[in-house]
Amino acid sequence: MKKIKPKKGGEEYIFRVSVSKESPVFYHGKTNNKIAKLKTMPHRKIGILGNQNLYKFAEAIVESFDFYFDHCFGFFDNLKNPHKSDKNKSYELFTDIPDIEPTESKSVKKTKISQAWKKEGEKMLFMFDYGDGWNFLVKLEKITDADLKKSYPIILEKMGESPEQYPDYEEDEL
């Protein structure tokens, strides 16, 4: 992942990104039992510049969990039902891909972090790999002056082991 140095006066946005207990989502009759049995979900703290885009942030999230950055994704303000998100607060890669019918979501390549998150405490759902359904809760913890000695995005903290991106599933007994 390409990193950049901040310019004087740049802002660092610090996020806590947690794996959702429902990842991969419990649809299609399959369950990721390794995730279901965890008491504490793995999380990462990521610092990124306010002028970097959501595509770069998605790449940092995926790589921080040791996943391949090989699927479509989106950020949504509706944490429970992303498909009912406010169209002004949903951002999808589909919008940026030519030859795909656009969604009502905004671009992840044209939208800056500072445009999507306005204040500390705001949360969004980051959905990665719509087929397997990896969901991450993304919370903006702090906006601060960027460190001119660092390159961004930067992983500030890793808690918990990264889950397998392509685990073996067991049929749900429900």
Distinct helical segment count: 3
Order of adjacent strands in the largest pleated sheet? 6-5-4-7-8-1-3-9
Shape: globular
Helix content: 10-25%
Number of strands: 10
Structure, explained:
The chain is mainly β. The protein has a single domain (11-161), classed as MM3350-like (Structural Genomics Hypothetical 15.5 Kd Protein In mrcA-pckA Intergenic Region, Chain A). It is built from three helices and ten strands. The strands form two sheets. The chain has an eight-stranded mixed beta sheet, with helices on one face. Strand 7 (123-128) and strand 8 form a beta hairpin. The model has no long low-confidence stretch (mean pLDDT 85).
Q: What topology emerges from the helices and strands here?
A:
Blueprint: E1 11-19, E2 30-31, H1 33-36, E3 43-49, H2 54-64, E4 73-76, E5 90-92, E6 106-107, H3 113-116, E7 123-128, E8 134-145, E9 154-159, E10 170-171
State the gist of this model.
The chain contains three helices and ten strands; from the N terminus they run E-E-H-E-H-E-E-E-H-E-E-E-E. With 174 residues, the protein is mainly β.
